[in-house]
Design goal:
Layout lengths: L3 H18 L15 E5 L2 E6 L1 H10 L7 E3 L7 E2 L11 H4 L12 H45 L7 H14 L6 E6 L11 E5 L2 E7 L5 E7 L3 E8 L4 E7 L4 E7 L1 H43 L3 H23 L5 H13 L2
Antiparallel strand pairs: 1-2, 1-3, 3-4, 5-6, 6-7, 7-8, 9-10, 10-11
Helix pairs in contact: 6-7, 7-8
Length: about 350
Amino acid sequence: MLRLGEFMYQIKRSDSYRKNVNPPNKKRPSMTTSTEWFVKTKTGASGPFTPIQLKSFADTGKLPKSALISKSAEGPWATAEQIRGLFPATQEEESDGTIQASDLVPDAVKTSAAAVGSAVTGLSKSIVSSIRNAASNLSAKVESTTTSITNYCQDGQDPALVEKMVGRVREICTSGEEILYLAMQSKPIANLSPDCVVLSNKRFIIYRVKMLGRVTFYDCLWKDSMNIHMKENILGAEISFESKSGRKETIDYLPKSQARKIYRIGQEMEEEAIALRRKMELEALQAGADKTVINQVISSHPEASSGCEEDIVARMAKLKSLLDSGLISQEEFQAKRIQLLDSI
């Protein structure tokens, strides 16, 4: 390995050599410095030629780099390759002949720097990609939320109040529960904190806003709901809900269009609840009838037989009560009645 002194000596020697070969202060002749050029041949000076003609000779190979040319027929002469602009410049000619700082950097350092630069570039691209994906996802969520809020504002509901109320309702929604409709009071005076009615696919909810931001609500499952009524007044409409337990809740000053929609959706949900209750009771009755038949086949004791007859009588009475309450049709009653009689 070279010592530092020997290394600096070689650099100075190389620098001195380059300066002697290409003196920095000595300018090479240029094609644009003269309008006439002469080419020295065996028989004498040939010319004059314009710079364009001379350039054409060089490009087509008619003028070699070693040819002697001059700006006058008497000289002084210089080789064609020394004329700047006549031939394409090489990499060495484009260099100023000085040692750059980058020339002293070891190749290992350059390779490491390139690797670090590549890693930083890759990391930057990854960060930019992550930011774009996050922004895209956030935009999609905002758009989805905005769309859902808009769906609840088609009958004149206040979007700001709807957004606030939907957020509260979703906090108490159970698995698979979805908000179907939302209506708000429109009082003629002081309508800053209106009461709200929210219908979902599982229940109806009445929100009542109290002082100091407090909120109370009453809810009832559709399967436990008995009646829903609507009454239109001069100023808005009134909706009342009644449950099987006998509790009745009323909310007034609803816009008539919203009240009508509440009533329609409530009626549809009640019909579905009645159909579900009827199905469950029929299944229970069927299970009881099947159990009675099985007990009659297994048991041969007279007391057991008497008990089965009493059970059938009780089930017949229950079946008649279902018919009277409208939970089953006349056809269903007759079919079950025949089935019970056949089991005796």
